[in-house]
């Protein structure tokens, strides 16, 4: 049972990347899944999630309008499309999954301190010219 994050890399400011988080050993259908990130010298913070119940999506204010989360249940995978990347988006991105619905952004960010059922290993995103 694991989550596998991929898609990180080096990109110039203004560029795009798509991260993937693939689940194996369990079905994502019943899980809220999303992303956190840890920038150098900073605490891990929530980025985005997509709820299990109705597919509602939530985003950190810093990425609204630039990042889009989506899920493809047939592939048991969630994606994070990141556009208009900025140097401050540089971080290790982690995906996580919890087996319940999320009703608001705080419900997701609170999982940073416990309660997440599965965490994937991170994928590094570097935004630099």
Outline the secondary-structure elements:
Layout: E1 2-6, E2 9-11, E3 17-24, E4 32-38, E5 45-50, E6 57-59, E7 67-72, E8 77-82, E9 91-98, H1 105-109, E10 118-119, E11 123-127
Parallel strand pairs: 2-11
Antiparallel strand pairs: 1-3, 3-8, 4-5, 4-9, 5-6, 7-8, 9-10, 9-11
- Structural class comes to mainly beta
- Contiguous low-pLDDT stretches (5 residues minimum) are none
Q: Using the CA coordinates, give the radius of gyration.
A: 13 Å
The helix/strand order is: EEEEEEEEEHEE
- The beta-strand count equals 11
Helical content (DSSP H or I, runs of 4+)? under 10%
Q: Compute the number of helices.
A: 1
Shape: globular
Mean pLDDT: 94
Distance between the termini: 37 Å
Tell me the β content: over 45%
**Sheet with most strands:** 7 strands, mixed
